[in-house]
Amino acid sequence: MKARKLILMSAALGLASVTAQAQSTDQLQQALAQAQAPAAKQTAAAQAQAALEQARAAADRAKQSSVAATTATKSASGSALTVGSGANSATLYGLIDVTLVHKSNANSSGQSVTAPPVAWFSGNRWGITGSHATGSGDDAIKTIFRLESEFESQTGNMDTPGTLFNRDAWLGIESKTLGKLTFGRQNALARDPAASATYGDPYGSAKASVEEGGYSNNNNFKQMIFYAGSATGTRINNGVVWKKAFSNGLVGGAAYSFGGVVGSFATGSSMTGSLAYNGEGYTVAGFVTDANIANLKHKTYSIGGNVQVMPMLRLNAGYFDYTAQQAAAVGERKDTAWTLSAKLTPAGDFDYELGYQVMSAKNAGLSGVHVQNAYSDTSGVTAAATGDRKTIYGSSFYHLDKVTEFYVAFDQIGRA
């Protein structure tokens, strides 16, 4: 509300300036008429004419200021609060997802639990993003930034205790020619719409882009995201990420995260390259990631895509190949995984999703009785297991409007 008041005040000042300049214009016009009557006062007339032109120019600038202020006020009334001044703009935004879940076989005794856990589909968050245009024109370089924090709606706790901006904390530059270059904590490139977010599940973007996003939050089919991770998980620290959407439909990306280990440049680092193509009614994408975790090598290859079979039906499919060095006594881990899903969007306020995925792990290190996620520290692994994890899932969303929705969903795991 404070931002809205400031914007309205700016508009009022702009209109007041127009009125004052209009009064000055009338006075100068009278002075000009009086000065032009006698030929002897031609010099005074010229001066009055110049002053009149200056007054008109000032009035035009005041009108433009008023229009700009009004536009900023309108943009603040949308789903996020945006304020702008000249070349600068900033947006405050957020998302809250509250879920009630019934989970069977929640412990080794086979007991169930019903409770509101950490949000099922989307992490609860708030953030600030903004830009500054350094010039004019379509290809002017902009400086950009994002600060984004995740919290737990059921407790109010930080998602990552002690870390305020655990989702994003980056600064960068962007232009049509350069692309988008960002520095800091941000999504691992492999999980973004420039790569596997276009095929990892039916909830991501159909088209590859330079934006962040992709995958769901806290359910049994989210596990596929870990194959698109890095040495620091599904987000990278100390990262440098470049993405660009080319005019021929290609979207390219490259990322590097510094390990920051004294005396060992490679330890703790990650590298990813991605390439996608947006065709007419389809998208194909893939990535390669190489990470050094505790001086052990982890690597993923992946390829996939989606196709719009008909206006209301999209099919998605993808394949992942992951290898990881582990403690010498255990040996190398080798995983393959694939996913197939569909999104149905008939006319109206409902949409429907259905998916199936298989993760096949061979000689995968254990943490207690559970298989470690991909890109975990495997240096201390003492035992391993081999097997398949098969997950089927589905959902239906009812969209009350563009920013409010209700959903019901399920997932079921089978192991072999």
Describe the structure.
This protein has 416 residues and is of the alpha+beta class. 17% of the residues lie in helices and 44% in strands. The protein contains two helices and 19 strands. It has helices at 2-36, 42-75; strands at residues 81-85, 88-95, 101-103, 113-115, 125-133, 142-150, 168-175, 179-187, 235-245, 250-257, 270-279, 282-293, 296-310, 313-324, 333-344, 350-367, 370-371, 384-399, 405-415. Helix 1 (2-36) runs antiparallel to helix 2 (42-75). The longest helix is centred in the first third of the chain and has 35 residues, at 2-36. The two termini are 56 Å apart. The model is unreliable at 1-25 and 62-78 (pLDDT under 50).
Largest sheet: 17 strands, antiparallel
User: How many runs of DSSP E, i.e. beta strands?
Assistant: 19
By oligomeric state, this entry counts as: single chain
Q: Unreliable runs, pLDDT <50, ≥5 residues?
A: 1-25, 62-78
The percentage helix is 10-25%
Structural class designation = alpha+beta
Task: Count every helix, treating DSSP H or I runs of 4 or more residues as helices.
Answer: 2
SSE succession: HHEEEEEEEEEEEEEEEEEEE
Descriptive terms for the model:
single chain, 416 residues, alpha+beta, 17-stranded antiparallel β-sheet, two-stranded antiparallel ribbon, 19 strands, 44% strand, globular
Give a brief description.
This protein is an alpha+beta fold. Helices cover 17% and strands 44% of the residues. The chain starts with a helix and ends with a strand.
